[in-house]
TrEMBL record:
UniProt cross-references to NCBIfam families, sorted A to Z: PncC_domain
Gene3D superfamilies xref list: CinA-like
Domain CinA C-terminal, residue spans: 11-160
Lineage: superkingdom: Bacteria
Annotated protein name in UniProt: Nicotinamide-nucleotide amidohydrolase family protein
């Protein structure tokens, strides 16, 4: 599986490089795994502009400008916050495309309304609407939820340049 992800990441970087586009990430539940995967590949500095690991609510607010009242109203794991994370990463970087990821990886932290395995994604582009994706992976275990979230973040980044 890891080799498949590396191959996808390499192809993604090449596609972005060919179009002269740069990527930023704003990661919560994935803790920087998307940025780590992308930067594992030689030459990634031509595409990966920066990554934000905004694990705490305060980090989301202080580092990428997610409004504290938005987090208070909807919770960190929500569509509005995922969108704001992507938009904030774009606003606080020189990237052309940014992905935001927030979720409940488990094994604790889930509720009936926001169960373990719930992950929200935002994808923002300098020109265009911010896209949202919600996934409910289920309680697959922390490692598997995070890996699935990385896969879907790559999917969004792939779709953004098609």
């Amino acid at each position: 599986m890891i080799a498949d992800l590396r191959d996808r990441a390499g192809a993604l970087l090449e596609a972005y490089r060919a179009k002269g586009l740069k990527i930023a990430t704003a990661e919560s539940c994935t803790g920087g795994l998307v940025a780590a995967l992308l930067t594992e590949i030689s030459g990634s500095s031509a595409v990966v502009e920066r990554g934000f690991v905004t694990y705490s609510n305060e980090a989301k607010t202080e580092s990428i400008g997610v409004p504290a009242d938005l987090v208070a109203a909807h919770g960190a794991v929500s569509e509005p916050v995922a969108r704001a994370m992507a938009e904030g990463a774009l606003a606080h970087s020189r990237a052309d495309v940014a992905v935001g990821i927030t979720g409940v990886a488990g094994p604790t932290g889930g509720t009936a309304a926001k169960p373990v395995g719930l992950v929200h994604f935002g994808l923002a582009r300098r020109e265009g609407e911010t896209v949202h994706l919600e996934r409910r992976y289920g309680d697959l275990g922390r490692e598997n939820v995070r890996r699935r979230a990385v896969e879907d973040a790559l999917l969004l980044l792939e779709q953004a340049i098609r």
